Amino acid sequence: MFLGLDLGTSSLKALVIDENGNTIISASSPLSVSQPKPLHSEQDPSDWINALHSVMHELSNHACIKNIVAIGLSGQMHGAVLLDKYGHVLRPAILWNDGRSEIECKELENKVETSREITGNLMMPGFTAPKLLWVKKHEPEIFEQIDKVLLPKDYMRFVLSGVFASDMSDASGTMWINTKNRDWDEVLLSATGLTKSHMPKLFEGNQITGHLLPDLTTKWNMTNKVSIVAGGGDNAAGAIGVGITKKGQGMLSLGTSGVYFVVSDHYTAAPEQAVHSFCHALPDTWHLMSVILSAASSVDWFCNSIAKKPVSELFTELENANKHEPVNSSVFFLPYLSGERTPHNDSLAKGVFFGLTHTTTQLDMFKAVLEGVSFALADGVHALHDTGVQANEINIIGGGAQSAYWRQLIADILNQSIIYRSGSETGPALGAARLAMQAVTDNAKYEDIYKAPTITQIHEANTATHQIYKKKHETFRKLYSQLKPLFKDL
Predict the structure, then answer these.
(1) What is the pTM of this model?
(2) Does residue 416 form part of some domain?
(3) Quick check: 329 and 372 in contact, CB under 8 A?
(4) Does residue 272 belong to any structural domain of this protein?
(5) Which of 116, 140, 183, 490 has the most neighbouring CB atoms within 10 Å?
(6) Does 374 map to a domain?
């Protein structure tokens, strides 16, 4: 048996698979985000560990847990967990959607003029390196105590095994790594006042980094010596979970953020498009990725704060209303609740409803949120395609992808077929479990371990509907460009 753990922003998920790759059992525990100041987004790492013990307690009641031989890890990228020399957490973790370090991004690019060539990426507030420069400037007493800087899932690894380690895909999002050479870059580290000694050791995603501590093995009713495997960042692991491992394969992820992910067999970069260039979680493999910061989180925000209804209820109302046709086109939503990455790289961008009238209904606004997120995703898809890299097929995963309505909407806006596979909502945890399987299974067949799950549905684009949405998308883009000068005044 193999266990995958996915430390997300809104929950920690656990999933057990057998030697044939079949899911045996899963569990999850919710997490919350703290936003103490504008642009700040943080979590207490102790909450992650409480969630870990909660899901493992649930799993430990099942007989399959005693047969676990390896654990793979996945998690939200870019977060900064700061430890002192005793392994104690120095402050709350600064998360991927934190926008406080825009000034530090500019300072780092000025300090290291070749940073884009080294990393293949623009310096953005979401990445880890500018966060550390912010801490150095604003919390010097904290910075002076730093002994290790870990990504979220790698802090969980430290708790599980006592080992400081990371994988290539997750480390790619720090802006401290030479993406082509797959190693820490001392020049970029030095620019933030750090050295390689502050960093965990790097592994490929399918390599063993250590073993589960004996007291946890006993506590969770495990009987084997359990290997801890490197794993991957959430998007890389999610891609592996749906079999996206080879050149030309692509994926859309509708999680808290929204991601378009395309695999490459060589290093490629297009930082001027605000497209990310990262290592994949498998050796000698890379990927390009466009990211919007608020995807399913925009839907959650609207349902919880405005509609005061469960997400499922609003989707049911929308589907029952038979509103697949793009009516009420005067209502728009810009989904920039946490700023934006691709293609705008604008941490000051804000969410906006536009075109409301006395006749606008709650359902019209909900539909506008779905459309706005989909338009933003399409902007990222187009930016990535402008690099010359394009997917042969697009699979869709994530919690938001469970809605057939939303999947069809995205297919119509992109004018592109979208493939939905079984188990797509558990992609990162499944990918982590698959990496764990390969790490410890002798003579494991690559194609068997990383095979794509069964296709549940293929959404073909409606050409006529696409033409209507194409016009609305043009207005969506104009709204951002005309409002951009005002965002800095808010």
Answers:
(1) 0.88
(2) no
(3) no
(4) no
(5) 116
(6) no
